[in-house]
Amino acid sequence: MTSPHRPHAPLDLDSAPWRKSSFSGDEGACVETAPLVDGSIAVRNSNHRDAGIVFFTRAEMAAWINGVKAGEFDDLA
To answer: What are 15-33's pLDDT values in tens digits?
Structure first.
């Protein structure tokens, strides 16, 4: 489950090391992630950066990545 709130420590998200997947396309399928200094991982839609950011713990992100690699979400693409 994702963290429903922003991390407690103030974070400079503008200077976070955002990364976009090489699979992202020009048609709007762009998701970015950034590892943060507090150990969490931020996720946002790079085409709508003001729409909000979701924060995950490392364990939550690992569970998601393992599920993706196992094909558990293939029906969503």
So the answer is: 889 998 887 777 767 889 9
